[in-house]
Predict the 3D structure of the following.
Amino acid sequence: VKDKDPLEFEGNIVRISPQPDMAAMLTRTGISFLRENKEVGSTLINSIGMPFTSDNSFNDEYVSGTKVQPIAFSGDLSRVFVAGAEGKIYVIDMLTFELIDAGLMGNPGVNITSLACVGSALIIGEGNNYGGGAYSLMAMNINPASGEDYGQITSIDNDLGAHGVSGMAIGPDGTTLVVGIPGGRNSTNIAAKDDGKGKLKIYDLSTLTTGVSGGSIDNPVIVSLPEDGTGVVPQVISATHDPDHFLVSTVDDYNSGLLT
């Protein structure tokens, strides 16, 4: 044995990874995961007004509050983050579609409208359809290997107006964050022009620093929406393949509800 080269043996390697091209839809009874127009998994939550117990529910708690883009996939597609009620955040494993963490929390008691993931950070946008609150845009450490820093919150922006954040999206470059800031409430009626114009804030995530002692980010670029009275309530923000172009849907605008 000593006079010869050692023999090398290699066993079979099976790699298990989440499926790509997935979509997630939050409903009154749970979250459904779709691929090629077919449901491939689901996680149950309590139906509003119909509480029940399940081994795979969001801790048998209600999901309530204004939601715009409340679901975010992690960059490696291994987890999905869901904005619950009163600042709670749920984490679902994408291999088993089971709830694996119900202990993450933004600001307790404050509604989360939208989430977005980039790298090891979960961007959290607070807001409310009816206004009247103090809301924040934050970044949470979601790296499970970060020890005590896991779940740590860093404030990005506290100047978000009476309605806080509506939708938001991160571009394909992974550094451009576009956030909708409504000037009025989202309702079934056309928003009054005296509600004030909505706006967009564009942040450079490459300048974001986080940590237990605090963090910082460069001041955002502020984009004002049209002067014709439309664009009061920017809602869903969608990234495109072009890092310099985003789609912005604005509710309460007749025939003027999609901007780029």
About this structure: Confidence is low (pLDDT under 50) at residues 46-56.
